[in-house]
Amino acid sequence: MEVRVRDTGRGDVVLSPAGEIDMSTVGVLETALTAALNRPDLRECLVDLAEVTFLDSTGLRVLIEGFSLAQERGRSLRVANPQPVVERVLRITSVGPLLGLPDVATPLPPDARWLG
User: Residue 58's domain spans which residues?
Assistant: First the structure.
């Protein structure tokens, strides 16, 4: 797993991890996220999950701890572009909306009826 870091020059940083985030690789993300959140000029840290193929509970822990640290410092942390398997983990754990994913309810099909 690797994490690319891009500074937008406006106080925003984009972290782009790639690969699987699990207990054997989470340290790479944790190091990059901590470094970004420790920047004195930081306003927002965006974690672009487009290239993340797997996310386990250790990855969730790092994202939640990063969110808490950002809040303590008056900054923002959010995620974007998760692949479906990663988005599912974020949603079933209710972490997605906390990290800026829209809270989308699945609409009923137009022909749905109550049974019974």
Answer: 2-99
pLDDT in tens, 70-90: 999 999 999 999 999 999 999
Tell me how many domains the chain contains.
1
What DSSP state is assigned to residue 70?
H
The percentage of residues in the chain with a pLDDT greater than 90, rounded to a whole number, is 85
Backbone angles phi, psi at 93, to 5 degrees: -95, 0
> 91: which residues sit within 8 A by CB, 6+ positions away?
101
**Backbone φ, ψ for residue 49 (5° rounding):** -95, 15
Nearest Cα neighbor of 17 from 61, 68, 87, 26 is 26
Q: CATH code at 57?
A: 3.30.750.24
